[in-house]
């Protein structure tokens, strides 16, 4: 039997950081859906394919191998054998990831990969549609939110830690555009599942959010 925790929410809401911390505290397997979609976007760029060329992106899917590895206590992402954890966070990838992840065939292929990884394991996954599309029967569903201003500040800090320098205002505008695009996707739209627990982290520390989610999961596990 497996135990599935789904954490959904908009870009910059802290899903990734919180998921990593919860994962360590409860010894869950962390599957980063966002990193997987970013890897497909990166492969699109590497192969000089336009983000508008849906057919070529679909053809590319059969040539893509995405792996999640834990090395020296760090979660790393590999694309076709190359470590791309920082590369997939750069501006050129960010600018097309929403469009690439909107392609039906991309979502279907990656969803199959996610479900296979999760078989008979205790898993935590974060994304936009985990509790609504990928694992609608997840044991715990969280919708993590925060104000646009707070999310932009967090993304600036995250980028700085990765050595990426993008101005606050540019990131804020990108998040606003991303929210609009994610909420209006025909497939895998950003949406709170009816049975998800809503958490606004705008005025909460990462530790407070983590502790709250850990408590929710422990209560469900017992």
General description of the model:
There is one protein chain. The protein has 222 residues and is an alpha/beta fold. It contains 9 helices and 8 strands. It has helices at residues 15-26, 33-46, 54-60, 91-101, 104-118, 130-134, 148-161, 168-183, 206-221, and strands at residues 3-8, 29-32, 66-71, 74-79, 82-83, 122-127, 140-145, 197-200. It has a 5-stranded parallel sheet with strand order 2-6-1-7-8, with helices on both faces. It has a 3-stranded antiparallel sheet with strand order 3-4-5, covered by helices on one side. The protein is globular. The model has no long low-confidence stretch (mean pLDDT 91).
Helix content: 40-55%
Strand order of the largest sheet: 2-6-1-7-8
* Average pLDDT rating: 91
Shape designation: globular
Short note summarizing the structure:
By secondary structure, this protein is α/β, with parallel strands linked by helices. It is built from nine helices and eight strands. It is 50% helix and 18% strand.
Ordered list of secondary-structure elements with their pairings:
Layout: E1 3-8, H1 15-26, E2 29-32, H2 33-46, H3 54-60, E3 66-71, E4 74-79, E5 82-83, H4 91-101, H5 104-118, E6 122-127, H6 130-134, E7 140-145, H7 148-161, H8 168-183, E8 197-200, H9 206-221
Parallel strand pairs: 1-6, 1-7, 2-6, 7-8
Antiparallel strand pairs: 3-4, 4-5
Structural features:
5-stranded parallel sheet; 8 strands; alpha/beta; 222 residues; 3-stranded antiparallel sheet
């Amino acid at each position: 039997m497996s135990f599935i925790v789904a954490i959904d929410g908009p870009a910059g809401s802290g899903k990734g950081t919180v998921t990593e911390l919860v994962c360590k505290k409860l010894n869950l397997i962390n599957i980063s859906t966002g990193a997987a979609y970013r890897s497909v976007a990166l492969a699109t760029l590497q192969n000089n394919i336009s983000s508008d060329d849906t057919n070529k992106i679909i053809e590319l899917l059969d040539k893509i191998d995405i792996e999640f590895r834990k090395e020296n206590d760090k979660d790393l992402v590999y694309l076709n054998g190359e470590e791309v954890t920082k590369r997939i966070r750069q501006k050129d990838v960010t600018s097309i990831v929403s469009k690439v992840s909107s392609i039906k065939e991309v979502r279907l292929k990656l969803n199959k990969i996610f479900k296979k990884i999760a078989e008979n394991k205790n898993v935590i996954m974060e994304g936009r549609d985990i509790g609504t599309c990928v694992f609608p029967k997840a044991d715990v569903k969280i919708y993590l939110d925060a104000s646009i201003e707070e999310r932009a500040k967090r993304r600036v800090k995250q980028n700085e830690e990765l050595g990426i320098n993008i101005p606050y205002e540019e990131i804020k505008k990108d998040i606003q555009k991303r929210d609009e695009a994610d909420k209006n996707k025909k497939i895998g739209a950003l949406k709170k599942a009816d049975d998800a627990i809503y958490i606004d982290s705008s005025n909460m520390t990462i530790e407070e959010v983590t502790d709250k989610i850990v408590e929710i999961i422990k209560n469900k596990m017992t």
